[in-house]
Structure formats: C-alpha cells, structure tokens
Design a protein that fits this description.
The chain is an alpha+beta fold and about 500 residues long. The protein has 15 helices and 17 strands. The protein folds into four domains: about 120 residues, PAS domain (Beta-Lactamase), CATH 3.30.450.20; about 120 residues, 2-Layer Sandwich (Beta-Lactamase); about 80 residues, Helix Hairpins (Orthogonal Bundle), CATH 1.10.287; about 150 residues, Heat Shock Protein 90.
Length: about 500
C-alpha cells in the first residue's frame, strides 16, 4: 500500500510531465488527465469520449490503440498511425483491476479497468530515426550503384552484404546470396582460406588487408570469373568479426589484353613480311645481272663451239637451271616492284571468271570440278585489276596443286554484312593446311613443295597486294575437308 505522501508525489510527478496523458475507460470515456492535458484541452473533457474530444467522431477510431490493448491485453508502445492525441507516437497501457491481481483469484483472467494513453513522441528521437533511415537508404543506394562488386561476411563466412554488381558478375540474385551464400562458396577450391591467411599476414598490404589480389570467383553455374580483389578484415574491439571486400571483374580487361597481344603479333608479322620483301628485292637485283651473264655465255658456248654430247647435255642443264633462277628472280621483282597502282572500278565476278577461263584449260585442272557461286549483288570494287588477277590466280593454282589435280574447287563471292566489302572465298578438297604450316603460308619463300615446284612467293605476293587494297587475306581449314582462302576487298579503299 502506498502512503498518502507517496500518492501525492506520484500525482505531482505525473503533472510535471509535459506530454499529454489520459486515462480512458474500456468504453472510451476519459476518466482522468494530467495537468498538461487539462491545460491544453480544458478541464471539462472528463466524462467525454476520447474519439469525440480528439477527432469529433461519433464512434471509436478505425485503428483505435485502446481497442487493440483491450483485445489482446498487451501494451502498445508507440502506436504509429496518426490518431489519438494528434501524435504519431502514442503508447497505450492496460490498467488492470485491483481484484484480478490479488491472490484470492489466481486463475481468473485479468480484467482491464482502464487504459493509459501517453503521447511519448519525443521529436528528437523521431528526427534521429529519420536521419538513420535516410543514411541507411543512402548507404544501400551507394552499395548498389558501385561499379565494383562489394561483399561482406561474418566470422562464420555467412554473407550479409552483396551488392548489385556482385550479383551481376556472379549470376546470383542479391536475395539468393544473402539467404544462402557463404564466402567459401564464392571462391573455388580452398581459395577463401587462402585469402583469409593472406589477410591475417602483413605481407600483402598490411595486417588485415589484401590489395589487388588476382583470383577467380565461382559464378552461380560453376564458371570461373577472374577478378581483382581488395579485401580487409573487420575488427571490433580488437576481435575479428568479419571480412569485407570489393572486386573488379577482369574479363573485359583480359580480353582487351589478348586482343592487344594479337594485334602486336600481327604488326610484327607485317613488319617481318615488309622487311623480307625488301631483302628479296635487293637479292633479286643483285642476281639479275650475273644470271643474265650465265645465260648469255652458256648460249654463246652452245652456238660457237663444237662440243661433244656430254658437254652439250651439261650445258643445257646449266641453261635450264639458270632459266629457273631467272623465273624466280622475275617473280621476286614483281613482288617487290614499287609501281604505282592503277586503281579503277572493276567487276570481281568477271575477273574471277576470266582467271578461271585461263586456268581451266590447263592439264592440272582436267579432273577438277569447278563450282562457282558468284553473287549478282556485289558492287564494283576500286582496285588494280592486274594485281587482283594475280592474287586470284595464285590462290586458285595453289588449291589445284594441293588437290593434286583431283577434287572440287568452290569459288564464291558475297557482299559483307556491313555492305562495305566484297568477300571472295576459294575452297578446295585437298589435305588442308597443318597447324605448323598455317602461320607461315604468307611468308616469302615459305613453301612445302618440293624443289623446283614452289617458290614460296605466290601467297606473300597475294598478301602484299591485298594489303595495298586495304583488304585482308586469311587462310583456314575447312571444317569438312581441305582449306579455304578468304579475301576481303573493301569496295572503296582510300
Ligand atoms: N590450298 C592450299 N592447301 C594446302 N596448302 C596450301 C594451299 N595453298 C597454299 N598452301 C601452302 O602454302 C605454302 C605457300 O604457298 P605459296 O606462297 O603459294 O608458295 P608455293 O605455292 O610456291 O609453295 C604452300 O607451299 C603450301 O604448303
Ligand atoms: Mg603458290
């Protein structure tokens, strides 16, 4: 039992509170108020209903906190709808009858005599909460707008931060990752342990830190994705509580690196071809005069001296070989000739038909089936037709030689999908080009043919001509059988 003095202090304490406080009966009549409420609302509110005083309603509010407390007996702390006491933060407590709490009826259900409604909306808390909510939303937004993947895991490895970029790289949805994923699942093999080990040592960017570490992560479907990782251990009071990392997808960078490397190789190849070409031209010039001398004096000996049969035979052999040398030198000179190109508009289909017409009659082509698939839709190409004929002739001749005079030759023309190039394809049913030969076929003097049959200059000449037309010539193996030479010629080279 409280003493009168205690009761007195309690009432004074309640009156000292500068928040609205009312006691209502279960049927919503106001039974008592503190001084602050009486001052604000007027003394005569006692006996009226709360819904009438506060809202001028004739029935209780829809979302009445008092009704809810009456229904389930539990206090409501900070009811948040805009309702009673004009506040968004009303708390409501049940006041039980004295008898129910006495020991005489221990099993009786407690009876709610009245309800205490208090306006505890402390504006500062509201503001702080709003700030917290905003900075949380900002943080979430920032994580999800980051270009890099960001993830954090607790001490057991359970992931609790997983941003949008991490989801895009890995293929997991954010929800999926947060619900099911452990850091161990993100890395293949025992990489996660390895990373933790490195993090704990101070050799990789300081203790608790790991900088620019290249490793693979596992995508949702088991694919390995190369990344560059920056990670750190999260400490709390000196204790490890988790780890945090952000990573950059390296796939595009690695792809670019590969392309750059192959462009460099191509550049080197062009350089090699050009210098070999110059060398060849120099050698050809040097050889031309002595060769002329050999042939001239051999013929003179033949004509002016009475020679016996064996000497005559030897001399013819000298002449025959010298002629072969001269042919090679001639080809070399064509190859290296720096003549001005005569570029005009030409019909590539016609040029191919003419080349075929010349070749068809040769013995080598007697048993070769020639199929032409020339597109009627290709435009004229600006080029030096003598040189282009030379290219077609060389490639077709090579195909016939590769098939050893027996097989099928297909020659097609098409317009490239972008409409800017004419594509000529020459394919044969020969043995194809082996992997070790393929990288060298365009090099000057590279031949796999036996001595006397090949000079190794045909394709290098073709390469130089196509290059000077800003085109491309590529050799590959057909998936079925034989090889395919693809020649791309821009319609309008600059
Ligand atoms: N259609 C083809 N099928 C198989 N190999 C080929 C084909 N065309 C060219 N080659 C290979 O490329 C090499 C170089 O060709 P090329 O420069 O014309 O010189 P050559 O014909 O004098 O040997 C040939 O020796 C051959 O090994
Ligand atoms: Mg050849």
């Amino acid at each position: 039992m409280r003493t009168e003095a205690e009761k007195e202090y309690l009432i004074r304490a309640i009156d000292a509170l500068d928040r609205e406080m009312i006691v209502v009966s279960p049927d919503h009549h106001i039974l008592a108020t503190n001084r602050f409420t009486a001052k604000k609302r007027g003394k005569d509110i006692i006996g009226s209903t709360c819904y009438d005083i506060y809202f001028e309603f004739s029935t209780p509010c829809d979302d009445c906190p008092a009704c809810r407390v009456l229904h389930n007996g539990k206090p409501i702390l900070r009811h948040s709808s805009k309702s009673l006491l004009e506040s968004e933060r009303v708390s409501c407590f049940p006041i039980y009858s004295e008898e129910a709490s006495s020991s005489e009826y221990p099993l009786a259900a407690p009876i709610i005599d009245a309800l205490l409604m208090v306006d505890f909306d402390l504006p500062r808390i509201g503001k702080l909460e709003e700030q917290l909510r905003r900075s949380n939303a900002f943080l979430k937004n920032m994580l999800n707008s980051a270009v890099d993947g960001i993830l954090a895991a607790d001490r057991k490895g359970k992931i609790f931060i997983f941003n949008q970029s991490a989801a895009e790289v890995s293929g997991y949805s954010i929800e999926e990752a947060l619900e099911t994923l452990y850091i161990q699942d993100v890395y293949p093999d025992r990489c996660a342990w390895d990373i933790m080990k490195k993090l704990r040592s101070d050799e990789y960017g300081g203790k608790g830190k790991l900088k620019e570490y290249h490793v693979d992560v596992l995508g949702k479907h088991g694919e390995r994705i190369p990344i560059s990782l920056y990670a750190s251990i999260i400490y709390e009071g000196g204790q490890e509580v988790g780890s945090f990392g952000f990573f950059h997808d390296l796939r595009i960078r690695l792809q670019l690196k590969k392309e750059l490397e192959s462009a460099q190789i191509q550049l080197l190849q062009n350089e090699k071809m050009a210098s070999l070409g110059k060398l060849a031209a120099g050698v050809a010039h040097q050889l031309n005069n002595p060769l002329g001398g050999i042939m001239l004096y051999s013929r003179l000996i033949q004509e002016e001296y009475e020679l016996g049969e064996p000497a005559k035979d030897d001399l013819s052999r000298i002449l025959r070989d010298a002629e072969r040398c001269r042919d090679t030198v001639k080809e070399l000179l064509v190859f290296s000739r720096q003549t001005r190109q005569e570029k005009q508009l030409h019909d590539i289909n016609k040029a191919l038909s003419r080349t075929l017409f010349l070749l068809e009659k040769q013995v080598l082509f007697q048993n070769i089936l020639i199929e032409t698939r020339l597109s009627a839709d290709i435009p004229l190409v600006l080029g030096d037709i003598q040189q282009l004929n030379h290219v077609f002739m060389n490639v077709i001749l090579n195909a016939a030689q590769a098939m050893d005079g027996r097989g099928k030759l297909i020659i097609s023309t098409n317009l490239s999908p972008d409409g800017e190039k004419v594509i000529v394809e020459v394919s044969d049913t020969g043995p194809g080009i082996s992997e070790d030969v393929l990288p060298h076929v365009f090099e000057p003097f590279y031949t796999t043919k036996e001595e006397g049959k090949g000079t190794g200059l045909g394709l290098s000449l073709a390469y130089g001509i196509v290059e000077s037309h800003q085109g491309r010539i590529v050799a590959k193996n057909s998936p079925d059988q034989g090889s395919v030479f693809v020649i791309e010629l821009p319609i309008n080279p600059s």
